[in-house]
C-alpha cells in the first residue's frame, strides 16, 4: 500500500492500477531479497532468472542481472533445476516408472500433445544424431498442488538412473495372431446376397444408359 501510494501519488485506484501493482510487487520482492541477502528466493528472482537463461543461454548475463539484485544467481538456478529433476525421478519411481506431472489435478480434463525432436540428423554415418519425443500436457484452471515443499538441492550434481538409457523390448508376437471374440461369429453375415448384387448391377446399368441420353444433365 505504501509503495503504491508513492508510485502513483494517489490513494485511490487509477486506470494504471495494474501497472502500479505489478511495479510495487517487483520492488517489494527486491527489498525482501536484499534484506535476507538472497537466502530465500522470491518468485520474481527465480522466474526472471530462468526466463533470461532460457532466452539467452548466457551464464554471464544471468550473473550480471543477479549482481544488480534482480534475479537469482546462475548457481542458484542450477540448484533449483537439480531439485526439480530429483523430485521428478522420485515421482517416476513411485508411479511405476512413468513420469506424471505432480501439479495435475485429478478428475479434471487435460490434453496431451507430442512431437518429435531431431537434431543433426543428416550425417554421413548416422552417428552423433539426437532423436527424442517431447510431450506436453495442458489442463485448464489453477492447480491445487504446488512445489513449495521441494527443498533446493545442496549442489548441482545429479545422476541419471540407468533405466533411462535402456530401451524396453517391444511386446509383439511372431506370426499372425487370431482375433479374440467375445461372442461366436455368425459367418452368414459375410456371405454375399446374389439377388441383391444382381439388382444393384441392373440399377447401375440403367443409370449409366440414362445418363448417356441426357444432354441437359437432368439426371443427378
Describe the structure.
The model has no long low-confidence stretch (mean pLDDT 83). With 220 residues, the chain is mainly alpha-helical. It is 40% helix and 8% strand. The protein is elongated and about 95 Å long. The longest helix is centred in the middle third of the chain and has 21 residues, at 74-94. A two-stranded antiparallel sheet has the order 1-2.
What topology does this entry show?
Layout: H1 2-8, H2 17-35, H3 43-56, H4 59-67, H5 74-94, E1 111-119, E2 130-138, H6 194-212
Antiparallel strand pairs: 1-2
Helix share bin: 40-55%
- DSSP E strands, number: 2
State the low-pLDDT regions, or none.
none
Give the topology string: H per helix, E per strand.
HHHHHEEH
The helix count comes to: 6
Which strand order do you get reading across the main beta sheet? 1-2
Taking the sheet with the most strands, its summary is: 2 strands, antiparallel
N-C termini distance? 77 Å
What would the principal axes of the Cα set say about the shape? Answer: elongated
Classify the beta-strand content into a percent band. 5-15%
Radius of gyration: 32 Å
**Alpha-beta content class:** mainly alpha
Q: What is the average of the pLDDT values?
A: 83
Concise account of the structure shown:
The mean pLDDT is 83. It is built from 6 helices and 2 strands, in the order H-H-H-H-H-E-E-H. Helix 1 crosses helix 2.
List keywords for this structure.
mainly alpha; 2 strands; 40% helix; 8% strand
Amino acid at each position: 500500500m505504501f509503495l503504491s501510494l508513492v508510485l502513483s501519488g494517489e490513494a485511490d485506484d487509477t486506470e494504471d492500477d495494474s501497472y502500479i501493482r505489478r511495479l510495487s510487487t517487483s520492488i517489494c520482492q527486491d527489498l525482501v531479497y536484499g534484506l535476507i541477502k538472497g537466502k530465500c528466493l522470491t518468485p520474481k528472482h527465480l522466474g526472471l532468472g530462468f526466463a533470461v537463461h532460457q532466452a539467452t543461454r548466457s551464464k554471464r548475463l544471468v550473473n550480471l542481472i543477479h549482481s544488480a539484485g534482480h534475479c537469482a544467481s546462475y548457481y542458484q538456478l542450477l540448484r533449483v533445476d537439480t531439485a526439480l529433476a530429483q523430485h521428478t525421478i522420485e515421482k517416476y519411481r513411485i508411479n511405476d516408472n512413468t513420469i506424471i506431472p505432480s501439479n495435475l489435478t485429478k478428475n479434471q480434463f487435460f490434453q496431451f500433445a507430442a512431437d518429435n525432436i531431431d537434431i543433426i540428423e543428416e550425417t554421413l554415418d548416422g552417428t552423433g544424431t539426437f532423436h527424442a519425443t517431447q510431450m506436453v500436457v495442458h489442463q485448464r484452471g489453477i492447480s491445487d498442488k504446488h512445489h513449495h515443499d521441494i527443498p533446493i538441492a545442496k549442489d548441482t550434481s545429479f545422476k541419471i538412473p540407468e533405466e533411462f538409457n535402456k530401451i524396453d523390448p517391444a511386446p509383439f508376437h511372431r506370426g499372425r495372431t487370431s482375433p479374440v471374440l467375445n461372442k461366436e461369429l455368425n459367418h452368414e453375415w459375410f456371405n454375399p446376397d446374389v439377388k441383391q448384387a444382381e439388382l444393384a448391377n441392373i440399377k447401375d446399368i440403367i443409370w449409366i444408359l440414362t445418363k448417356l441420353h441426357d444432354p441437359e444433365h437432368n439426371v443427378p
